[in-house]
Design a protein that fits this description.
Blueprint (H helix, E strand, L loop, with lengths): L1 H15 L1 H22 L1 H6 L5 H31 L1 H9 L4 H41 L12 H27 L3 H10 L14 H17 L5 H31 L10 H14 L1 H35 L4 E5 L7 H10 L2 E11 L4 H9 L1 H14 L10 H10 L6 E3 H11 L10 E6 L4 H10 L2 E3 L2 E9 L6 E3 L1 E2 L1 E5 L1 H5 L2 E11 L7 H24 L2 H6 L19 E3 H44 L1 H9 L4 H42 L5 H31 L7
Parallel strand pairs: 3-9, 4-6
Antiparallel strand pairs: 1-10, 1-11, 2-10, 4-9, 5-6, 7-8
Helix pairs in contact: 1-2, 1-6, 2-4, 2-6, 2-7, 2-22, 4-7, 4-22, 5-8, 6-7, 9-10, 9-24, 10-11, 10-12, 11-24, 12-22, 12-24, 12-25, 13-20, 15-16, 22-25, 24-25
């Protein structure tokens, strides 16, 4: 008898809260698909850095478990409260509390199992889609084949079951303390319409909005660092909840004083509905806002990485092979032999970078580059040092030593044109007394300013700037760090060779194993240099204290390739893997967060539709036509969904635009900053509209007035 009652109640729950079932099916599918990638042998074959994908998805899974646990607990407790009168009647007709708990636990267990079993089917297909996309990123062909790893099933089912068991255990404990009166009072308590609202709390609305604006000002004026950032962000979370407290108080005050426009058309009904709902679930609305804002941030970050992956991979390393050697006397013969033996070579070129004992350009950039100023301010705040921004300060020198070579870097015009020809660029012609600068796009404005304010001297004469070129040129510690100055051959020849480089243009892709062979040669050269220094200075300690070669890697921050040997194929695979390993979990977390937030909003509205049907019945009896009632429902849902979502989008826009600005600054990616936010918003709004449509359909069905069907 109890089982029959439980199954009947499950059918009713599915009908009334179908959006919750859909969400749990989606969560199951997402969990299974992403967990499959953790254990997939196909993904492990493509992994260039062991354990990264597993670690990132594992971290994401931790957040997912917390949020899904909150969702399940919230919905289960919500359904228990909505059915409190039913449970009270069960007690009145002779059932004991243990039987009622068994019915409710069995209902939710059946519901959870139903969602899990159904969700496994789209989960298997989604896993194939994600794997196929992953293979496509690497330019590999993938043949679809369905399989299920036992470890994937156990992990997914274990985490899923854990979220339900935890939620049911907490509700079970609560039900043990209930009696007939408490069950009956619980339903009245949840009405929320008659709860007192202190009008003075409306001050929370402007207070929270002012704080959000102030948070943005601090963010964009670069006054936020690690320590105060954590505190300010924690207060921001508190202010989000305070916003809805103030909004509810303000709406009640506005309605009671008969504000302008309150009695126009259906506005009084809508405002009263909205004020009542926000007041009764202000904490939930705040949580929904935070979840949606996090979803916007996650999706935007994933799009940043995808944009970087598409635009900058080739730019970071345009040469097929590029090898650095510290010794300017190095001939690179062994490297040439290895490349010619393992690959089919189109062009192979050994050349030098030069220096004249000066660091004029480096010091100029240290003074003017926004990156340096930003990093300097961060270090100064963290160390609580009140120092002036100047190149003599030890902090700036330390930062610069990680970014630039000890001396300015120069290149011969003939070598430069040989490399441009290798990359398919047009040659550059320098007239007598001219030089040019090869740099990254984000450095162009600084070096233009440098060329106007400074002169370059070589071979006893000065040179003027002919132009600045920003094509991809491998400038993360090889052809200079961020820049290289190109001089006529005779001028560069008067300088001292700084270090040696080898560039190769191959027919087709570099073969497997080439990178490892070249790295072994580089390691051997480095060991030889160390041994020679030990002999020269009479010991290892003396050699370490002696003046050493400072290798600059440029000011790229998001992706910095600090390695002497670069092979384009291996580098692309490694960076593709790393970026995808970060982007996939971000999408995973964002998808679950937004579905969770929208499910809570939908379930609340669907419950109110059936519970407060009489309100719409009154409207129909007052002569409000069917189409007008439909429009009232639409407005109510738009307001109810719109307020937390618009607030979340405002928060998301503020943070995403700041992150985009920093991302462009550090990577030099050529992109419109707002595109990240616009793209993520567009994707998430599609999901919002789908949930809104489902809620609207269910709302009309639950109202179902006697006079006419909506």
């Amino acid at each position: 008898m109890l089982s029959k009652l439980a199954f009947r109640n499950v059918r009713k729950t599915v009908r009334d809260y179908g959006v919750y079932l859909i969400t749990m099916i989606l969560v199951t599918a997402l969990m299974f698909a992403f967990h499959s990638m953790m254990f997939s042998p196909q993904i492990k074959k493509l992994a260039t850095v062991a354990g990264v994908m597993e670690a990132m998805i594992g971290i994401a899974a931790g957040f997912i478990v917390l949020i899904v646990s909150w969702l399940v607990r919230y919905i289960v407790a919500f359904m228990m409260e909505k059915r409190s009168r039913e449970f009270g009647i069960y007690l009145l007709i002779g059932m004991n509390k243990k039987q009622i708990r068994k019915i409710f636990m069995k209902e939710n267990t059946i519901f959870g199992l139903l969602a899990f079993v159904i969700g496994m089917v789209p989960g298997i297909f989604l896993e194939q889609v994600l794997t196929s996309v992953f293979y496509h990123i690497f330019g590999e062909e993938y043949t679809i084949h369905f399989h299920m790893e036992l470890s994937t099933f156990l992990l997914t089912s274990g985490l899923y079951a854990g979220t339900y068991l935890l939620a049911l255990w907490r509700v079970k404990r609560r039900m043990k303390k209930m009696n007939i009166r408490k069950f009956m009072d619980l339903e009245k308590k949840n009405e929320g319409d008659q709860a007192p609202v202190r009008k003075w709390r409306r001050i929370f609305l402007p207070l929270s909005m002012c704080y959000v604006i102030g948070y943005g000002v601090i963010l964009y004026t670069h006054r936020m660092h690690m320590v105060n950032g954590m505190i300010l962000s924690a207060v921001l979370v508190f202010m989000i909840y305070l916003f809805f407290e103030g909004l509810a108080a303000w709406l009640f005050w506005y309605i009671e004083r008969g504000g302008k426009g309150v009695y126009k058309k259906d506005r009084l009904f809508l405002l009263r509905q909205l004020a009542s709902k926000i007041h009764s679930m202000k904490f939930t609305m705040g949580t929904v806002t935070i979840l949606f804002a996090c979803a916007v941030l996650g999706t935007s970050c994933a799009m940043m990485l995808y944009d970087y992956q598409n635009k900058m991979m080739t730019y970071q390393m345009p040469f097929d092979v590029l090898v650095f050697a510290q010794d300017p006397q190095e001939t690179m013969k062994e490297d040439r032999d290895v490349i010619e033996e393992k690959a089919e070579v189109k062009d192979l070129f050994t050349y030098h970078i030069y220096q004249n004992g000066k660091d004029t350009v480096n010091r100029y950039l240290m003074d003017h580059l926004e990156y340096m100023k930003w990093e300097f301010d961060s270090v100064r705040r963290e160390n609580k040092r009140d120092v002036k921004m100047n190149v003599q300060d030890g902090i700036v020198e330390a930062m610069a030593s990680e970014a630039y070579f000890q001396m300015d870097t120069y290149m011969k015009e003939s070598d430069y044109n040989r490399l441009r020809s290798m990359l398919g660029y047009e040659p550059v012609a320098l007239s007598d007394g001219e030089y040019c600068i090869q740099t990254k796009p984000r450095m162009e404005r600084y070096l233009k300013q440098f060329s106007r304010e400074n002169q370059v001297e070589a071979a006893g004469r000065t040179y003027s700037c002919q132009g600045i070129y920003t094509e991809a040129f491998g400038q993360n510690g090889h052809n200079g760090a961020d820049y290289v100055i190109v001089l006529p051959d005779e001028a560069a020849a008067s300088m001292e060779p700084y270090y040696t480089l080898l560039a190769a243009d191959l027919k087709g892709e570099a073969p497997r194993g080439l990178l490892e062979e070249l790295e072994r040669l580089e390691s051997r050269r480095e060991q030889t240099i160390i041994e020679e220094k030990i002999k020269t200075y009479g010991g290892k300690k003396q050699a370490e204290e002696a003046e050493k070669f400072i290798w600059g890697s440029g000011t790229d921050e998001v992706i910095s390739m600090t390695t002497p040997v670069l092979v384009q194929t291996d580098l692309e695979e490694e960076l593709n893997y790393l970026l995808t390993a970060i982007a996939y979990p971000l999408i995973y977390v964002a998808a679950v967060f937004v579905c969770t937030a929208l499910t809570v909003l939908a379930v609340q509205q669907l419950s109110d539709a059936s519970r407060h049907r009489y309100r719409y019945d009154v409207l129909s009896k007052l002569g409000v036509k069917r189409g007008e009632v439909n429009r009232i429902i639409q407005k109510q849902l738009l307001w109810y969904y719109g307020i937390p979502i618009l607030f979340a989008l405002a928060l998301g826009a503020m943070i995403v635009l700041f992150m985009g600005e920093r991302f462009v600054l550090y990577t030099g990616i050529a992109s419109q900053i707002w595109a990240y936010f616009a793209g993520s918003t567009a994707v998430l709004m599609v999901v919002v509209l789908l949930y809104l449509a489902v809620t609207y359909t269910g709302f009309k069905r639950n109202v179902n007035l006697k006079g006419y069907r909506l």
